[in-house]
Amino acid sequence: MAVTYTTVITLKPGAAAAFMALLTPVLDAMRHEATFINAVLHQDGGDPDRFMLYETWANPRDLEEVQMGRAYRTACWQGLPELLREPREVAAWQPLRTDFRTAIEPAG
């Protein structure tokens, strides 16, 4: 049963570039995992230091027991705490329906 996780990340002012440098390699690597379905990173239009990561995995047990410990996540796990303005907010959701027209182009 697939599970979607939303993670709201609120950074210290000016930390967005450092955050993206930590997160980009993780997103680039995890898309190749067998149980990965999708991920979408969002940035708050009113607060450039606030992000929401939406990711769906086919097997939540695999995510927790295997994927979260992958070596490509280490730098992000180690560097993220010093960038945070407040603790991450993580929620798990059960997908009921999926509708996508096409890939979303990043805002200019």
From TrEMBL:
Gene Ontology molecular function terms on file: monooxygenase activity
Keyword Ligase part of the UniProt annotation: no
Origin: domain of life: Bacteria
Occurrences of domain ABM (ranges): 3-91
Record keywords: Monooxygenase, Oxidoreductase
Name of the protein: Antibiotic biosynthesis monooxygenase
Lineage: Bacteria, Pseudomonadati, Pseudomonadota, Alphaproteobacteria, Hyphomicrobiales
